[in-house]
Amino acid sequence: MKTQKQHPVNSVVEQTALKESDMQLIYRPTEKIKTIIVDNFPSLGKLVALRFIEWAQQNPGWTVSLPTGKTPEHFIKWVSYLLQNWKTKKVKTILEQAGVDPSIFPDMKSLHFIQIDEFYPINSTQHNSFFYYVNKLYLKGFGFDASKALLINPNKIGLDENHHLDEIWPDHKVDLSLRTRYAQNLLEEKQKKVLESVDQFCTDYEKKIQSLGGIGFFLGGIGPDGHIGFNVRGSDHFSTTRLTPTNYETQAAAASDLGGIEVSKNRLVITIGLQTIVSNPKSTAIIIAAGEAKAQVIKDAIQSDLSNQVPASVLQKLENSCFYITKGAAKLLNERRYYYLSKANQLSKQDSLQIISDLAIEKNKKLSELERADFKEFRSGELLLKKSKKDYKP
Questions:
Q1: Nearest-angstrom CA–CA distance, 86 and 204
Q2: Over 70: is that where the pLDDT of 57 sits?
Q3: In the CATH scheme, what architecture does the domain 12-332 have?
Q4: Gap between the terminal Cα atoms of the chain
Q5: Domain segments of the chain as ranges
Q6: Which residues contact 369 (CB under 8 A, 6 or more apart)?
Q7: In 10 A of CB 12, how many CB atoms?
Q8: Who's near 310: CB < 8 A, 6+ residues apart?
Q9: Residue 80 pLDDT exceeds 50
Q10: Which end of the chain is more exposed for a tag (fewer CB within 10 A), N or C?
Q11: What mean pLDDT do residues 119-129 have?
Q12: Where are the alpha helices (DSSP H) in the chain?
């Protein structure tokens, strides 16, 4: 399939959301990736649903990768609602207000769905497998054509009808050293053969994605260490689909889904790579995040230079990349934070203390050593003096 020309980066849905936020799309040079901020988690789901619908209308036949887990909960609900009630007056109004043409029903069956990642080994019939998730909520829920989907089914990779994952990996531990050493017994011979099949599957999976022109629309969450897909901190920006270990932060986050840290720490993952996501320069890539718990990784992702330690920084390579985040997740973004402070009638005690702490760190001084001149040289410090209407002295 040939790469299709995408419409301009100027999404009407994004333009509408940007007006409501009353902020700029990007504050250079501090920010490296475009960002749109909404009030809360449900609003986030609605915005990205409308953006996805808009993109699907304009790009029939292209490829789509959508996330699993709790992050896309409201996104899934909103897309399902819009598609199922398309002809109603209420949905028509919602679409028109967001800048989406209600006369064009998106051709979901024309799109190629691409699964982003999966635990390994895991029985794909389990409700906590991503294979089960995407089949239920995306292929059936959104009406994608299953025959066009690229899926990761651990039950099928390297196994025939007479063998099961539990036979090959009885303790659910995959010894990656079998890639480079000889098997020492009959079980290891079987494991080595299956492991080789998994690695070949990953290579073939990547080839299939690239043969479709790359990923046209990528939607992802961001992990506690900043991972995108399962590309954890330290991942090569030129990485492609592969079987790989994770790190402690990722294992801890997955523990509740897999049955505890003792289980999750032994699971490997099959994941598309960072290069897979950005391989087509015309792709649209959106990362969503909600809540103050994500504030630090969001700050790193949006304000850092390209770095293997910040996986999401790879999205700087895409003109059509954007972060959709809540106010809580945006809390530590320098320019956005200053914007909110400047709009406030009066600064809270917490905001005041944060400014003073930041100033002390910037000046490398104790709080008691800060002078009025220090406050005047620090933008937020000067704002604090102005808002407090007195010579603030800690």
A1: 38
A2: yes
A3: 3-Layer(aba) Sandwich (3.40)
A4: 65
A5: 12-332, 344-388
A6: none
A7: 14
A8: 226, 233, 300, 301, 304
A9: yes
A10: N
A11: 91
A12: 12-21, 41-58, 73-84, 89-98, 130-133, 141-142, 165-168, 186-211, 248-258, 261-264, 274-278, 295-303, 334-343, 349-363, 372-377, 379-388
Q: Which residue type occupies 123?
A: N
Q: Hey, is 312 helix, strand or coil? A: helix
Lay out the sheet containing 320-326: strands in order across: 34-38, 320-326, 284-289, 217-220, 63-65, 112-113
124, 131 Cβ separation under 8 angstroms: yes
Question: For residues 371 and 289, what is the distance between their CA atoms, to the nearest angstrom?
Answer: 38
Whether residue 224 is preceded by a cis peptide bond, meaning omega within 30 degrees of 0, is no
Angle separating helix axes 12-21 and 41-58, nearest 10 degrees: 150
**Tokens 């969503």 belong to residue:** 288
At 256 the pLDDT is 67
For residue 134, count CB atoms less than 10 angstroms from its CB and return exposed for 0-12, middle for 13-18, buried for 19 or more: buried
Q: Are 288 and 17 a contacting pair, CB within 8 Å?
A: no
Which are the contacts of 237, defined by CB distance < 8 A and separation ≥ 6?
274, 275, 306, 308, 313, 314
Mean pLDDT of 363-378: 88
- Residues 6+ positions from 150 with CB-CB distance below 8 Å: 112, 113, 114, 115, 205, 208, 209
Both tokens assigned to 118: 């999966």
Whether 222 has a pLDDT exceeding 90, the answer reads yes
C-beta of residue 240 within 8 angstroms of C-beta of residue 273: yes
CA distances in angstroms from 212 to 150, 207, 241, listed in the order given = 11, 9, 15
What is the residue-averaged pLDDT of the chain?
91
The tens digit of pLDDT for each residue in 181-193 reads 999 999 999 999 9
CA distance 14 to 8: 12
